[in-house]
Write a structure and sequence with these properties.
Strand content: 15-25%
Shape: globular
Mean pLDDT: 97
CATH superfamily of the largest domain: Aldehyde Dehydrogenase, Chain A, domain 1
CATH class of the largest domain: Alpha Beta
Distance between the termini: 61 Å
Strand order of the largest sheet: 10-13-14-9-8-15-16
Structural class: alpha/beta
Helix content: 40-55%
Largest sheet: 7 strands, mixed
Radius of gyration: 25 Å
Bound molecules: nicotinamide-adenine-dinucleotide
Number of helices: 15
Number of strands: 18
Number of domains: 2
CATH architecture of the largest domain: 3-Layer(aba) Sandwich
């Protein structure tokens, strides 16, 4: 595929104004949904071959989220695309003022590998819903899912409107040399910096959905059983390869032993060896990530799990105890099925340590004490999170999803995504019939008095 040619065709197509017609956009969204529905079996097969993700998990954590976003857009984009009247004020009387949401133009969406369908397709669909054209570059690591998305999109949509470019660093670098009207990137903080730098060359606006180490607080008054249940599900979903997974736990020392027991009970349902690897537990994406994760398991700290099998790319759900902020596992985002637990005796001390690190993508607090919950919410800056739950905040499209600081910039999901891919054009609209002379020269003392009276 000639990337430059597709890019210039998209500019030409955008300039025909066809995508500004909301009915055209709705028709395309319906077509995408129908296409995914018709090909669900192929989509399930591809992701299973890439990293053993089951049909249930693929539906629950990928396809259902895509369908949900499409439904929201089909229902709302007519309203969201309308111009909105706002107040004008006396200084501009007798004008009216309004905001016109308009598409940005030709957009580039770059995906990460961990939820390969939804992380690529939701931003791409959002961009189309807002009236843009899209070049989508999914992650090359899960090659079968990347391939199936390219096949489905490229054979069913003209590339001047929506196109998938497969590939890795080389293809992304070629794309980044071109001038886009918006770049939406999901991936690591280090590659996010490369994207930001490339975008700066053209002053292209970017949304960066990045990662980081998301803390989870378990306070002394938490419902221990329910905390363990919700946390274990969230952490070991996708074998821990989730950007918003609880990265590490900070548990009140007084309940540490009970909490560890509750984690063990919950983990009993999970496979302990690769032979038992069940439909509901994924492989690590590739051997290089497997090797990186295996090195993070210090067997002196293993409280549960720690079984690895390189050939099967299997790491059993692993809980580490007696961890401190200085341990290797606390340096970078884990992004795998290893949960380090730090017990604390003084909450303020651990809050201080969390705040010394870069702002995380998520933070979770398990407690019934509203005073402490509010204190933590006030003191710690993070992208988004949940009280007495983990991960599930991202399933609510009424909540903007995104990071802050090194965990990202910009948000999406639902209306927030529509706004991310739109420009708000501001218009002051005035008739000819009245023009007070006050702002025109000569500037007299009386005019100054009058203007002060008007404006203050
Ligand atoms: P990554 O940064 O390695 O790759 C992301 C994309 O960038 C891929 O499409 C890849 O081909 C491309 N890329 C890689 N190196 C590049 C380079 N040098 N130049 C140009 N393009 C390059 O990330 P990943 O390993 O796919 O994903 C894991 C990271 O993504 C984790 O940090 C995770 O937290 C984060 N993530 C964040 C979110 C979110 O919504 N905030 C969601 C999923 C994953």
């Amino acid at each position: 595929m000639n990337i430059k040619e597709v890019h210039s065709k998209q500019h030409a197509f955008f300039n025909t104004n066809k995508t500004k017609d909301v009915n055209f956009r709705i028709a395309q969204l319906k077509k995408i949904k129908a296409l995914l529905k018709e090909n669900e079996a192929t989509l399930y097969k591809a992701i299973y071959e890439d990293f053993g993700k089951s049909e249930f998990e693929t539906y629950a954590s990928e396809l259902s989220l895509i369908y949900h976003e499409i439904n929201i857009f089909i229902k709302n984009i007519k309203t969201w695309s309308k111009r909105k009247r706002v107040k004008t004020g006396l200084a501009n009387f007798p004008a009216k003022s309004y905001i016109i949401p308009e598409p940005l133009g030709v957009t580039l969406v770059i995906g990460a590998w961990n939820y390969p369908y939804q992380i690529s397709l939701i931003p791409a669909i959002t961009a189309l819903a807002a009236g843009n054209t899209v070049i989508l570059k999914p992650s090359e690591l899960p090659s079968r899912t990347s391939n199936i998305m390219a096949k489905l999109i490229n054979t069913n949509f003209p590339n001047q409107y929506f196109c998938v470019v497969e590939g890795g660093v080389e293809e992304t670098t070629t794309l980044l040399d071109l001038k886009f009207d918006k770049i939406f990137f999901t991936g690591s903080t280090s590659v996010g910096k490369i994207i930001y730098k490339a975008a700066a060359k053209h002053l292209t606006p970017v949304t960066l959905e990045l990662g980081g180490k998301s803390p989870t607080f378990v306070l002394a008054d938490a419902d221990i059983k329910m905390t363990a249940k919700r946390m274990v599900w969230a952490k070991f979903l996708n074998a821990g390869q989730t950007c918003v997974a609880p990265d590490y736990v900070l548990v009140d020392k007084t309940i540490e032993a009970q909490f560890m027991d509750a984690l063990k009970t919950e983990l009993d349902n999970y496979p302990k060896t690769s032979n038992e690897q069940k439909e509901n537990y994924l492989k690590i994406i590739n051997t290089s990530h497997f090797d990186r994760l295996s090195k993070l398991i210090n067997h002196n700290n293993v409280c549960f799990g720690g079984i690895i099998d390189r050939e099967a790319r299997f790491i059993s759900p692993t809980v580490l105890k007696n961890i401190s902020f200085e341990d290797d596992i606390m340096k970078d985002e884990i992004f795998g099925p290893i949960l380090p637990v730090i017990a604390f005796t003084n909450l303020d001390d651990v809050v201080k340590k969390v705040k010394q690190r870069s702002k995380p993508l998520s933070c979770y607090i398990y407690s019934k004490n509203r005073k402490i919950i509010n204190k933590l919410l006030k003191e710690i800056s993070f992208g988004g999170g949940a009280i007495n739950d983990s991960i599930m905040h991202l399933s609510n499209s009424n909540l903007p999803f995104g990071g802050v600081g090194l965990s990202g910039m910009g948000t999406y999901h639902g209306k927030y995504g529509f706004e991310t891919f739109s420009h708000k054009k501001s218009i002051l609209d005035k008739p000819f019939w009245l023009e007070p002379n006050i702002k025109y020269a000569p500037y007299t003392k009386n005019k100054l008095k009058l203007i002060k009276w008007f404006l203050e």
